[in-house]
Amino acid sequence: MTDKTLVAGVSVDTRHFIGGERVASADTFEDVSPIDGRVLGRIARGGPAEAEAAVAAAREAFPAWAATPRAERARLLHAIADGVEKRVEELSIVETHDNGALLRSHRRGVMPRVAHNFRFFADWLLTLGHEDFETRGHTNHVSWDPAGPCVLITPWNAPLMLATWKVAPALAAGDTVVLKPAEWSPLTASLLADIAADAGLPDGVLNVVQGYGAEIGDALTAHPDVRRISFTGSVPTAGRIAASAAANLTPLSLELGGKSPLLVFADADLDLAVDLAVEQYDNAGQVCLAATRLLVEESVAEEFTRRFTEKASALVQGDPREEATDLGPTIHPRQLEKIDGFVRRAVAAGARVVVGGHRAEGQYYAPTLLTDVAQDAEIVQEEVFGPVLTLQTFSDEEEAVRLANDTRFGLAATLATGDRERADRVTARLVAGTVWVNCFFVRDLQAPFGGSRLSGVGREGGTWSFDFYCDLKNTVTAPNGWNNHG
């Protein structure tokens, strides 16, 4: 295999990055662009040997990195952010070709936010700490000790953004990292390794290994030298990871699927509510936080549906490299088939197609709205992860909350209402890690992020990230007993 591939003129190394060096594998796999099916490159396909080498490199680098002063760790994270900002255009181009998300979104929002992830946790690290407190004259001092090598397994829908949500706090905490990107979108993780090395990050502190699922994942998550595992992805894969980590009692942070509701009350600004609903088609619906279940009060349901249909039908679906495009392709033929299967089964069970409901040319699925769906229907209860929404109606607040909470998930919820007291009542009863009121996808890194029920375990963001990536130690000191001077 060749060591590098060119993606729209950008050179990307297709090998692993282990201990500061590029490492090839005997086997490879194809990385295919969802835009046009073109093979972007052949990627090193790692297994147990590469997993062992990466963990060993992280283990060897850990003592020195853990002992690195906070100010120096923060400086290096800012240097990585500088490197990201210098390469925003290259990162945007590569990621758009690799996962099909909109180029304009990468340029204007996603990649600048990647740099912000590093800057935020670098700055937060320098303010981290608790004041000492007294217990019967004894002093309690809490310290945040680096935990050790971390395995970070990231998804394909926002590859670099979601990777750096994990990498940045782990490095800031003083941990070393083995990053395993999704096999459907591995390229920007490789570029991140280059950026980190150029910034001066010591060898072995950040390692990147590629491979297919369990082939390399099991060896990483079962490794006794791994001290933390963070995963974003599906519930079944999370179960496998948890089982693999159980023998070593390795702490887990799991951000999993969602089947989030958007509740629209009759007192809401209906234009705002429609805008929020159409926004759920962002990234071709491949967003874990998406409010895919529209729950609309009966008295405004007809008018809401009319306005929604008009706005959704005007969306431009096509090449994500074009400025005018609103929806790009789905990530992979397997995902496209999955989405289509959900819709076909729903229609066979009695659902009515209001918008879309069919494949478009190439690897695209038309933005879809289904109604006349039962609460226990598969399309209502299971995550589709595509541009497919359902619409149900409710008669009162009590029914709205009951329908909203009636799934196995609890990642997020969105609420549209003009009544502040109602907003307070309803949000207090919703089972969700994040609730947005009259807005969507406003994410501050200092806030806790995660899900309830099958949507995840743990919280990350701000101090919660350091709670996970650190071992907290409390030192209790007696007020006397010293026999030294000074």
Summarize the entry for a quick read.
This protein is of the alpha/beta class and 486 residues long. Helix content is 40%, strand content 22%.
Structural notes for this entry:
The protein is α/β, with parallel strands linked by helices and 486 residues long. 40% of the residues lie in helices and 22% in strands. The strands form eight sheets. It has a seven-stranded mixed sheet with strand order 16-19-20-15-14-22-23, sandwiched between helices. It has a six-stranded mixed sheet with strand order 11-10-9-12-13-25, sandwiched between helices. Helix 1 (48-67) packs across helix 7 (213-221) and helix 2 (70-86) runs antiparallel to helix 4 (103-127). The longest helix is centred in the N-terminal third of the chain and has 25 residues, at 103-127. The chain starts with a strand and ends in a 9-residue tail after the last strand. The mean pLDDT is 96.
Tell me the radius of gyration: 24 Å
Helical residue percent band? 25-40%
Largest sheet: 7 strands, mixed
The class by helix and strand makeup works out as alpha/beta
Q: What coarse outline follows from CA principal-axis ratios?
A: globular
Q: Please give the number of β-strands.
A: 26
- Rounded to the nearest angstrom, the distance between the terminal CA atoms is 65 Å
Physical arrangement of strands within the biggest beta sheet? 16-19-20-15-14-22-23
Secondary structure tally, helices:
15
